[in-house]
Design brief:
With about 425 residues, the protein is α+β, with helices and mostly antiparallel strands. It is about 60% helix and about 10% strand.
Length: about 425
């Protein structure tokens, strides 16, 4: 293939933008003499088109450019203008329909404002003695750069990791290790009683002992290591998509409130049972993730659709793990979605937001009343009660074991 000066200029610009400004090459169908680049972190021009085809107006390519620009805007979630850098000598600059075209020639840029954005651009665009060798060199340089970036992307980076998600999983794992050590040292033969003693939710103890703190502590207690690892995997995928969008504080708010509200619903509406795990909080994040999908329209991106399907598949499997009540899952989804809508700045939710706030406050008030009004816990699990009392004695909480034994027996004797 023979390269002319305009083609060389395109490769020089592509080399500069990809290697120095972290733009990514976007594969675009159409067979035109152009290159599309994207960088969602660039404040001024997240989308750039490089072309060597003569053009003085967008009119003749309006449908093609608008279609690609719209698709790219969805992928990188940006409504900034498209920058076209044209290297044909007979082209001219223009500003039309949110598209800016600038002409680049040998040490020349038609719009000096672009030099302030990309200071190296004037030096980068220059004629060479051998176009073929220059293009071959630039192509090799681009290939090496892509290989290095792919190698770096395959490595774990703490900087880009979802730190809040990792912290939650770490706390759950740490609590599980402590419970395991406690069970081994005390020689207990009832794992469920051990989990309740560690802070797991047990309706009898919440209702008759007024131990409402279990609605919070039970979040970080799990039945087995497999559920922690699986929940951790789902949490990592959710966090990688949502922590940057919401920020750590709002992300943790959605998680904790969803988990607590889920447990409150279990206390209000479910029969006497034992429940634990971060399932309610995770499904709260799943509900918020659905709102996030709607806001960003990421389902229109084929690569994002794969990520969405992976998360949803993991969420479905997570519902079958032992510990968390199905009611906590369903309540968690609704709570997470409501909080995400209230926190959203999307124009679609602007008018609906006040209604969601009123509805959320009313539902939460009803749940508080329901938790306080819950005065019975049936059926009675006499054997489990005895094992819990015995386990408290084994860990050295003799006085507390007597207190638990008295209020449990007193409640069921009545």
């Amino acid at each position: 293939m023979q390269y002319n000066d305009e083609d060389v200029f395109v490769y020089q610009l592509m080399d500069m933008l990809v290697c120095d400004y972290n733009y990514k090459i976007v594969n675009v169908p159409g067979g035109k003499r152009d290159v599309w680049l994207a960088n969602d972190q660039h404040e001024r021009f997240p989308m750039i088109r490089l072309t060597s085809a003569q053009s003085t107006s967008i009119v003749f390519e309006k449908d093609y450019i608008s279609k690609i620009k719209k698709a790219l805007s969805i992928v990188i979630r940006s409504d900034k203008p498209l920058l076209i850098i044209n290297t044909h000598k007979d082209s001219s600059g223009y500003v039309e329909d949110d598209v800016i075209q600038v002409v680049a020639q040998d040490h020349y840029i038609s719009d000096s404002a672009l030099v302030h954005v990309f200071p190296q651009i004037v030096l980068k665009v220059h004629r060479v003695s051998n176009n073929q060798n220059e293009c071959a060199r630039l192509i090799r340089n681009l290939e090496n750069n892509q290989r290095q970036k792919a190698k770096q992307a395959s490595k774990f980076s703490w900087k880009n990791a979802p730190k809040a998600s990792i912290a939650i999983s770490g706390i759950c794992l740490f609590v599980f290790m402590i419970i395991s050590v406690m069970a081994r040292n005390t020689g207990t033969d009832n794992w469920l009683a051990n989990l309740v003693v560690a802070g797991g939710y047990y309706k009898s103890m919440v209702v008759y002992g007024k131990e409402y703190w279990r609605l919070i502590t039970s979040i970080f207690i799990h039945y087995d290591l497999y559920s922690i690892l699986f929940y951790g995997l789902l949490l990592y995928h959710l966090g990688s998509q949502m922590e940057k969008h919401y920020g750590v504080a709002k992300y943790l708010l959605i998680f904790l409130v969803s988990a607590i509200v889920g447990n409150m619903c279990v206390l209000t509406f479910a029969q006497n049972n034992v429940s634990f795990g971060i399932g309610g909080g995770i499904f709260g994040l799943v509900g918020a993730f659905m709102v996030y999908i709607f806001e960003t329209k990421m389902f229109l991106n084929p690569f994002a659709r794969l990520k969405i399907s992976q998360i949803m598949m993991l969420a479905v499997v997570a519902m079958f793990f032992a510990g968390t009540d199905i009611l906590a899952f369903l309540t968690g989804i609704l709570t997470g979605a409501f909080i995400a809508i209230i926190l959203s700045s999307h124009k679609f939710f602007k008018e609906l937001k006040p209604h969601f706030i009123v509805c959320s406050v009313a539902c939460f008030a009803c749940l508080i009343y329901g938790c306080i009004a819950s005065t019975t816990a049936f059926p009675e699990y006499e054997e489990l009660n005895d094992r819990i009392v015995e386990q408290y004695k084994r860990v050295g909480l003799v006085k507390y074991s007597k207190y638990v034994d008295n209020y449990l027996k007193g409640a069921y004797e009545e």
